[in-house]
Structures are given as structure tokens and as C-alpha cells.
Amino acid sequence: MNVEFTGRHFEVTPAIRKEVETRLTKIRKILGDKFETKVVLAVEKRRHKAEITINPRNGPIVSEAQAGDMPSAVIEAFEHLEKQAVKYKTRWRTQKRHNHKSASPKKWNGSESQEAVVTAVGLSEASAVDVVVHKFPAVAKTTEVHLSRSEDAVAMRPMTLEEAIKEVHFRDRDVFVFRDPKGKVMVLHRTRDGKMELIEAP
What we know:
Layout: E1 3-8, H1 14-31, E2 37-44, E3 47-54, E4 61-67, H2 70-99, E5 115-121, E6 129-135, H3 161-171, E7 175-179, E8 185-190, E9 196-200
Parallel strand pairs: 1-2
Antiparallel strand pairs: 2-3, 3-4, 5-6, 7-8, 8-9
Helix pairs in contact: 1-2
């Protein structure tokens, strides 16, 4: 297991190493073995911080946690990392399934709504030819829009792009709005293929 430990004002103990490796086993069951892990353990003003970064195929997953002691911070960071790993795996499977799906009948507004009616056209019964007529609905169904306010997707203070990317991973958001140090409004957006897209507001 390739794990890189970094201690900042904290000595990485064998007990912490064992805890990290044990919990990584569970993550590897979800995502497989093909990723490297970086663990940064730091103590700042009596707060113990654990930051865990793993690098699976389609981009990094970062988890951070703070607690009164280091074992609690590590456990909390791994709990958050596990949720992100499950979400990552589900998104990857869904994307793979959509890419390899066989051609299905055309849909109208997301539902099978073509009614095929077979009728015959011709001057006599002997010369009649079968023709398939498709009937579409008169009014296309619309889906209701559900709006909810999200304060978790907006940064309350200016931050650099690197800080914003870490916040997106930590908060597990697909869209994140923030201001850069110069005060310009920026939007980070996670596309369906898992890549991060930066949008600069005019």
C-alpha cells in the first residue's frame, strides 16, 4: 500500500499509521487498488487536522477534518472520504453504462411516447401495403422545478483557485461560487465526466 505521510507539528505514530492503512482497505474495496494516497496530519492552535488525498483514475478526491485529537480527525476524514468514494464510483459506473448502452428507440421528452399504428394503404386488398404511423402526444410533459437555497455552495471569503478546489472536494459540491483575491466572481463546475471547469463571471 503506497501511502505518503506528512506531519506538521505532529509526529506520525505507528497507531495512526495502522488506523490509516486499516481504513484505506475499505476505500480500496470501493475503488480498487489503483490509486496513491497522501496523508497530511497537522496541529494548529490545539486543533488536530487530517487531510487525506487519493488519486483514482478520473481525478483526485480530497477529504479534510478537524477534531480535538488526531485519531478522531483521521476517523472523521475517512468517513467523509468513504462517502465521496461511493459517489465517485456511482458516477463512474453510470457514465460507463451510458457510454456503452445499445441504441434504444427514440424518446419524446424522456418517455416512450410514440404509439405505432399499423394501417394499410392501397386501391384494393391485394395491392395494399402496410404503413407504420407514429403518433406523438399533443402536449409534451414538463417536469416540475424544485428550488432550494444552498449556502454551502458559496464561499464567504475570498480564496485562491487552489483553496476553492479543495473546498469543492471537501464540501462535495458540483457547483461552487467564490471570489478570487482581486474580488472577481468565479464559478467552479464539475462536469458529468468528473472534470472541474472554471467559469469567470464578467
